[in-house]
Write a structure and sequence with these properties.
Radius of gyration: 14 Å
Number of strands: 5
Distance between the termini: 42 Å
Number of domains: 1
CATH topology: Multidrug-efflux Transporter Regulator, Chain: A, Domain 2
Number of helices: 4
């Protein structure tokens, strides 16, 4: 099985460090979120991999809803089968951010 996504560029999974670099957080932030069940991950014999698709979906939700997507809400919604749209989100304006 290839580590590359079919039909698009980029990896199917990120290392914790690569995901942390992409999201501009520390690797420890990702590890803590994964351990708390607040960030989607795959654990294989103790090694944690972050699905690229999960990061892509969080980005799409953030852009589509012009809202801050909390990874904990994202993970719990996916685990319970809820649509993320049903989980309360925090508008960007309340965070002091504005996309235009």
């Amino acid at each position: 099985m290839s580590m590359e996504r079919s039909g698009s560029e980029g990896p199917r999974f990120y290392t914790v460090k690569a995901a942390a670099d992409l999201l501009r957080v520390s690797p420890m932030t990702i590890y803590r979120a994964v351990e708390a069940g607040e960030f989607p991950a795959v654990r294989t014999r103790g090694r944690i991999s972050i699905p690229a698709k999960a990061i892509d979906l969080m980005e799409q939700e953030a852009m589509a809803g012009r809202a801050v997507v909390d990874s904990a809400d994202f993970s719990s919604a996916r685990a319970s089968g809820e649509r993320l749209r049903d989980v309360p989100r925090h508008p960007l304006r309340s965070q002091g951010l504005d996309l235009g």
